[in-house]
Amino acid sequence: MDPVRRNGSSPLADRVRAEFGTVDALFVNAGINGFAPFESTSESLFDQLLAVNAKGPYFTVQKLAPLMSDGSGVVLTTSVANVLGLPTLSAYAATKAAVRSMTRSLARELLPRKIRVNAVSPGPIDSGILAKSMPAEAAEQTRAQMAADNPMLRMGTPAEVAKAVVFLAFDATYTTGAELTVDGGGSQL
Question: Domain with 51 in it: what CATH number?
Answer without folding.
Answer: 3.40.50.720
